[in-house]
Model the fold of this input.
Amino acid sequence: MAHYLTDLDLPGQDMEFVDVTELFAQASSEMGRDEMIFMQGFTLQDAMSAFEIGEPRLDTGLITEEEESAPLFDPLAPLLPEELCWILDEIIAYEMQWHAGNPLSNTVYTLNYVHHLAKFDPDSLAFPDMRISDVSRPLELITVVLRAGVIGLLKSCDLCWRELSKGGMQETEDWHAEKCDISLLEGLPAKFVLGKLEDASLWLSSSPTVPQIWKEALQSRVQFRRTFLQLLEANASRDVNAFRALLDVARLHLNNIKVHLPPEPAERSLARFAFDPLVARKLNSFVPIRKIDIPLREETWTMVEAMLDGWHEMSLLSEAHEISTWDNLGHLRLWSVERPLQVSYIRSSTQSTFYDGILVLDSHSLSWMVERFFFETLGVTYGSLATSIKDCWIHSETAPLFRVERTLYQLITPHIRSHWYNPPRKRRHFMKSLVDWHRLFDILYRIVDDLDTSELEDDRFILQLPNCALLWRLNLMRDIILSGFQLDLYAREERPFAYWYAAEIVDTHLRLLDEFIQLIPQDSIAYQEMKFQHWYLTAVGAMCEAMFAVSVRISFSWDHLKQTLARRYKWAFRPEYEEIETPPVCQPDFHRFRQAYSRLKSDKYVSPRGSFELAQTILRGIAEREFVGGWIGVWGHDRLQFINHLIFVCEDLRGLPERMSELPSFDLKRLTWDPQHHPWFPRLAQSEGSGGTST
Done:
């Protein structure tokens, strides 16, 4: 029922306010579209400044004549089967754009049927719609098939929203949680929606009016949505085989979808009015209105396939009950150029698969992580280490092993989960956690210092306890430095220090590995992993040293650089370090960098090209032997791909000068840092004058 204003409806009627609506309407009656009246000295900018800056609801956009002439949306408007196919494909495209980080109001909610669910509910239609007399456009295509697809879409978004809201992903940074007061069918059981999708599939099977080619096409889309919803509802770690079977079914239906592609609807086809890209202006939303450009279908299918691949990898990880495997894969995925970052839902689900707040990998307690930490790092069990510590403890009070365990509980779970953050947040987490890793190093160092090992037959493992924490900490430090190149954080004059410091970290790491390799049994998986790490880090260290050597030609002010580095590396000098008795290892040292810089300028034997040739030889040895270490699990092929990519980088950078004396004639503009080429090292243009960003 229409609502009409009365005198009582006027705001401030008890204050003798006057309704001026008619006055303004009469005054503007002769104005044309897009015309404005300006007062002298009062501009449009002044008018807009009077409103709250950034208020998105003011930015509703101009409604064009074309939009005004568009027909009102009718949810029961008849559609051809091929038009319905196109709508269902478009739904998937918008859904993938939500997974890519866009708001619901600009993606999923642009589907007009979402806002009119009650109007094409077959249970609420008292009699068939007499307007639909064309047998090629049966009403059931709308009320049964399309409706099942729409509620399947909403329920899929609901299950994703629940996972994303657990806290592993950052709202507005990784995803948008705003629902705009639109229901995602939160109270509707997933089984009910699955039943409706099955009903739609059965109706299509028995329909005599839908052509066979479009019957198969619609079946593929309905069954894909049904399988997709089942995957969202399933727990990959509880029944891995069933989960992978669902993935196979989803891939089968996706392939069928790509085979049966519908034609683009005509310009005035009713199918095109199923979407309103600017529907956000009608919603209760605080997100600025923006029209999302839907990619080509091939790109949408690629995004869907990547999501299925992420699910498959998650199922493999659920069977990997080694924290080093999770850690190694997390590092590997950060640097893989071939594989883009997974969508937020997959990354959040992967975190939940590792730790659900109670159990690790759905079956282990937190104490299990302590056992795995020492066994995978040192090759011996935590129980044997704890027994040796108790036997050699020189004080009357109990050895503070509980502090070791508690610190590891607080470190490992967030550390593993952080591998599935976005790269900038992952880097920030690593920087914040360095203090805690050093605190663990300090606890272990003081425990070892208070042991009497004179009567212990084999004290080699006990003495290496602090270095277990240091190994993990050095890994984080190296990733922090190298990720600065991936994220394009370093200014031109910062690159020499970054490469020098990365080489220093690698050198410290290699010295530790030398000690570990001598005492760990050679038939252990930990030994195999350390051998791989030793070869790999030797190559990376040589590459970083070579880039440091090349960068000595960059001119800068030492005073300005010192101030810049103090800000860039403030994470290494946090005040919490002063509360820890043991000084941290391998801290950034500007004085030592300046000394190394001065020595390098006069060193005639340093060869940038030779360093890359050495690195290439080492890496080729790894690739030819297919030696992938011990804790990478089933991702050995991915690790080899990463090694081969480094070999390609070495081959490219063999065009650097052979000797430092040749460096003045080398054009630094030939070096271009491009994360798509490699996240750490630059590309070398083939000739002077080639395009690229100067160093």
